[in-house]
Amino acid sequence: MKYRKSRQREKILDLLKHTDTHPDADWVYGRLKKQIPNLSLGTVYRNLRILVSQGQIQKLPFGSTFDRYDGCISPHYHVICEKCGSVHDFNMAENIDINKMAQSQSSYTIMRHRIDFYGLCEKCSVSPQIAVEINN
Ligand SMILES: [Zn+2]
Ligand SMILES: [Zn+2]
After folding, report:
1. Out of 2, 66, 103, 133, which could bridge 110 as a Cys pair, Cβ 3.0 to 4.6 Å?
2. 7-49 residue pLDDT tens
3. What is the pLDDT of residues 86-96, one digit of tens each?
4. How far is the CA of 82 from the centre of ligand 1 (A)?
5. pTM for the full model?
6. How many Å lie between the centroid of ligand 2 and the Cα of residue 22?
7. Comparing C-alpha atoms, which of 12, 51, 4, 10 is closest to residue 29?
8. Residues with Cβ within 5 Å of ion ligand 1?
9. Is 68 exposed, middle or buried (0-12, 13-18, 19+ CB in 10 A)?
């Protein structure tokens, strides 16, 4: 029983390390269900929680929508499409000065920050022609 649980966890971790789509628990479940027929969504959630608490993956909560999971644990920003909800890594160096600025104005001990950029992905962006029409 214990062996099986950790084997499932390893598969979940492996899946998250090899995707950059920042999937939610449902996606993970759908992918692994084919390989592990007796897998339940509850087990996926439990193992995701354990992996987050172990610092092996990070959870990206997006308010009222589903939490997304990221196999990359080094600090990085994300860009999110407001139309289709896709989440991508944003290749911009983390601004460590922001932590210092926040620290100087807060009684909290500032440890980290999170920045999400929102916009439209290439697929969802309006075509340049339509944009020109709007401008005129
Ligand atoms: Zn999009
Ligand atoms: Zn990421």
Report:
1. 103
2. 899 999 999 999 999 999 999 999 999 999 999 999 999 999 9
3. 999 988 888 88
4. 7
5. 0.78
6. 6
7. 12
8. 81, 83-84, 121, 124
9. buried
